[in-house]
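quick q for whoever's on today - can somebody do inverse folding on this one?? i tried earlier but teh output was garbage lol. tokens:
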């Protein structure tokens, strides 16, 4: 027998899981889950714990904007050494979760004083999985695929406590599929969406990015304004599990697709970008993926742009001066951006995210709010301020 039979139907509808996200976006993700009708149990560091049914897991994967992955814990146990880790992984009923012909990837996060070699942790969990299948399938075992696996397993180490999770998302949720090409130092889609939500943009007033790059704020802003679920058409890891319900998945997809709305008349999203190749990337994305969106990408340096944007919501991610150029030039650019917002965007709101902390301090001496967020490993500040009266 190549594949053991799937488990009997009628599994419990109440699932406990967690959504992973970037540090600082936990509250945003919790709010997104609640808006999707999913019960939030608590928030942790870079995680939001929830309770839902299978439909909610599908819905979360398709509709969450500021998340990285939706995980379902399988087992939690103590392991004081690698042999015990193997034994516990071997005891897990992997054969009841997915077929033997699926490819698998294993990742490890957290830390342990007993299990210090992450590569060997991965190796011993892999041994436990393949030995489970070998015993039940006459020697057949799943293959390992680190690039594009069907099944993604995450092992979280908390001291000697190990939790094995199924990643129902597979490819991280911020990989929407529209940004195959991008400009220099692009902002990830989940961070851009989280910044807009955290800063309070509701998708009703015009949005302006004076340093739009390849347009991530513009396109995430459009999907937020039109209530377009960002991951309706992609493939998910949950589709490779025995309990996958295609009809339920399709029904949830149809509900989300029908929720799309039209923004107010005259609503516009505008991006300014002076670099020709980067602007061409943004235009290509707009034409291919968002042809009907009210998004305008203008060839301009914000410092010499003749337009005005009174009442707009201004969002920006200026160069930090770490990899892209000189630190002093980046600091000066932050000062010029603050002047632009005050003089050209009166009556609106500005939200600037930067990992140049000296530049962040120049944006406004009395900001409405600041948040600490991370762009990869770079610690940054999201500064929200009101431009006041223009000059």
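ok took a stab at it. sequence:
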């Amino acid at each position: 027998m190549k594949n053991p039979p799937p488990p009997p139907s009628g599994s419990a509808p109440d699932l406990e899981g967690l959504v992973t996200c970037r540090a600082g976006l936990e509250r945003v993700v919790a709010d997104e889950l609640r808006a999707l009708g999913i019960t939030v149990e608590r928030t942790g560091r870079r995680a939001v714990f929830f309770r839902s049914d299978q439909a909610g897991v599908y819905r979360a994967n398709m509709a969450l904007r500021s998340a990285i992955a939706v995980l379902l814990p399988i087992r939690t146990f103590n392991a004081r050494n690698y042999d015990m880790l193997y034994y516990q992984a071997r005891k897990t009923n992997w054969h009841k979760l997915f077929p033997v012909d699926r490819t698998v990837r294993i990742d490890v996060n957290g830390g342990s004083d007993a299990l210090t070699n992450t590569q060997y942790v991965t190796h011993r969990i892999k041994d436990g999985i393949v030995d489970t299948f070998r015993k039940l399938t006459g020697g057949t075992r799943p293959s390992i695929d680190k690039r594009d696996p069907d099944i993604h397993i995450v092992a979280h180490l908390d001291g000697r406590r190990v939790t094995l999770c199924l990643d129902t998302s597979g490819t991280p949720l911020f990989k929407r599929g529209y940004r195959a090409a991008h400009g220099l130092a692009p902002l990830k889609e989940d961070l851009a969406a989280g910044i807009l939500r955290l800063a309070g943009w509701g998708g009703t007033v015009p949005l302006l990015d004076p340093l739009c790059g390849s347009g991530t704020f513009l396109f995430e802003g459009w999907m937020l304004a039109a209530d377009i679920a960002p991951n309706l058409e992609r493939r998910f890891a949950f589709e490779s599990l025995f309990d996958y319900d295609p009809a339920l998945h399709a029904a949830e997809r149809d509900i989300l697709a029908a929720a799309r709305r039209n923004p107010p008349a005259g609503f516009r999203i505008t991006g300014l970008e002076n670099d020709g190749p980067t602007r061409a990337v943004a235009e290509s994305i707009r034409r291919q993926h968002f042809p009907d969106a009210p998004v305008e990408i203008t060839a301009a340096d914000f410092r010499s742009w003749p337009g005005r944007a009174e009442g707009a919501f201004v969002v920006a991610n200026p160069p930090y001066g770490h990899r892209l150029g000189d630190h002093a030039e980046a600091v000066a650019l932050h000062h010029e951006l603050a002047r632009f917002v005050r003089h050209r965007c009166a009556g609106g709101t500005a939200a600037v995210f930067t990992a140049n902390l000296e530049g962040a301090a120049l944006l406004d001496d009395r900001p409405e709010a600041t948040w600490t967020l991370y762009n990869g490993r770079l610690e940054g500040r999201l500064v929200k301020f009101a431009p006041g009266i223009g000059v």
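fwiw The two ends are 77 Å apart (CA to CA). also The chain has two domains: 15-167, 189-226+262-385. so keep that in mind when u check it
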